Amino acid sequence: MMKRMIFTAMLLHCVCAGIGADSLTGKVTDEAHRGVAYANVVLLALPDSVFVAGTVSDADGCFMLEASALGEGLLRFSCLGYHSCTVPASGFTGEVTLREESVRLQGVEVVAERPVHQQKDGALLTRVEGTTLSQYHRINDMLAVLPGMTFTVSGGVEVFGLGTPVIYINNRKARADELQQLTPQDIRSVELITNPGARYDAEGKAVLKVYTLRRDDGHALLAEHVSEQGRRYSDYETLRYDYWNRKLHVSAYYQYADYRSVVNQPQSHELALGDSLYLYRNPDQGDRRDTKQHTWYANADYELTARHVIGAKVEGTHTRDYTFRTGNLAYGWSHAPLAEKDIDNDYLNRTDVYHANLFHNADWSDRLSSALNLDFVYNRNRYRQATAETSSGEWLETESRGKGNLSIASGQLAFDYRPASGVQVGFGSDVSRVHTHNELQSRADNVAASLYDEDEVRAAAFADVSAEAGDFSFRAGVRYEYMQMKFRDRLDASGNLTHRFHNVYPSASVSYKRNGWSQTLSFSSRTTRPSFRQLSNAVYYSNEFMYQRGNPLLLPATAYKLEWSISHKPFYFSASYTYEKNHLSTCHEEEAGNRIISTFCNYRRIQYLKATLNIQKTFGIWHPSLTLGISQPFFEVMYRGEPLAYNSPNCTAALNQQFTFRKDYLLSVYYAFYSGGDLGSVSIRPYQMLNLELQKDFFEKRFSVSLKAYDLLHTMKFREEQREGNLRFTQTEDYQLWNFSVSLVFRFNQLKNTYRGKNSSASDMERM
């Protein structure tokens, strides 16, 4: 199938290669011969230098102008941070090089003030280079202050109301852990797309695109140490080396993390069966977690010619995760006196992940380019759980051991074709195959053994076109995906299943830009596929009354979204409506012996109305940014035989303030308030966060020190309640995120840290 798609794409290239031959195309590069993104290209008429036509280079520095307007004029190229360049249009050779500009007066660097955030075809483009955002030490701290982004209760970041975004680094699809390998000083700009089009994988409700900096040739070294003291002590060490010359780039990375934490997670369950009410309460449940992780990668890419780049990357992660959980479970029936049981759990997970990528990027002509990526991933997991339950002198011991192997093979071929000025056509295909083998054994009769395989084959093709006409720009596209999923139970063939899906995902947008105003109306359709853990039918033991397992019958969810966004100078506003069918969420089942099974299921539908407003402005040394957001869900479940609505809105308000002082001091104050509300079938109570950070740079920013207080008020606690089926469940997730830390970063000749290949298996790897 992949061979057929590649052949079809190459045939389309041959048909289209000769179209639009009367247009002038070219590329704007820096002194390292890397494309300069968003450079202005202007045609001026002689002899009075009157403006005739203009355009902007794309993310790779390529541009196109109509040949009929050239005559004997001049071409002027300019971009912030570079010296402008003017050349005769008739003598233009197809490539122009801009030199970096550095203007200093008495040791003080002069930086022109312009908006940090701009709207571009419905996406929110945030400039990081040359702003205070680049001075953060950690990537998550920088991302959390962007409009539409927020901290999660577990310390990560997500898009407000949309969850974790799909990540691209320099147009290469990447995993979340790859993003953590960058620092804010590596980044030129960030683009947040909350309504992605057809060229992006149909899975994922938002896309975060990160573009890194481009530097001179030579060597670069980054070394970082972080000491973090919360309830327990943790530390992280990172070392990265880069070498880049005109044709060759080599990079190597290693990080060791020793993360230790304490988690409080009290729970209660009320199970109603007929006229009886069964109570299970565990008010003292808590974890002590120790995670040691080694992460590394090595990559090299080489320019065969100015138009062809090949490369390879290998990376790996070894994780040892140990958790000791204690609790006191009180249980009873219809408010009768409760018995008690002490429960101790030992969890040990060992995981190894290996990933290899090969790529070839090509400019077949001034109008057509392509990117071919081949990926292979292998995941190996070994799991052990020992549970000891003591009640009235009785002792129950359960030990489970599991192992799993997962492999992903994938390929992706994408083309971009520019037939005329202001017009771009994209088309391509990708295929992947995922194989999973899992085993679970137990020494106790209360946990059933499992042995099963899962196979998933996915093939997709997409096409989209974008065009500009005066103050308007248009984009339309369609994506087709075929998926086949097979589940084979090696112990009971009656449980074997096969699912096949054929889906078409259209998208379209129209944008208008004039006099500083930008607005976009867009439509897209997306999907959410079950993770491999959600599809697994293996049973995970919590205690005598509570189990967890997946659901092989799960269907992908499909969402349709209509969004309007508008921006002008310091203001950015967006509003959207989303309809999602086959919504994926947690649910509960009951089994004999009053056992509660936590699993996953599809709900008929869920709907959202969402809005986000951001205001940012600079007042001297003060750089405030205020983000307000609201999400209004419309969702209904059955609870104890009656419909129950989950329609409470959830709101957020985040104020980030940065103060830049002399001698390279930076003070950051971040405060966020979350009102709570309904998230699917879960109701959340309010919580808030306050972070303080003081940074100082030394030796012309080669050495940087950061002192930080995270969650200073100790209020990042996730208190939730769920009523669904016959169960009422309450829980507090207190990850004890508060800590004080010191971060030391040393940089020698900081370079662009960019691997030019794309990861065609990233979405499958995220589902591991």
From TrEMBL:
Signal peptide range: 1-20
Keyword Signal attached: yes
Pfam families given in the database record: CarboxypepD_reg, OMP_b-brl_3
Domain of life of the native organism: Bacteria
Keywords from the named record: Signal
Keyword Hydrolase: no
Domain Outer membrane protein beta-barrel, residue spans: 370-742
Name of protein: Outer membrane beta-barrel protein
Organism: Phocaeicola intestinalis
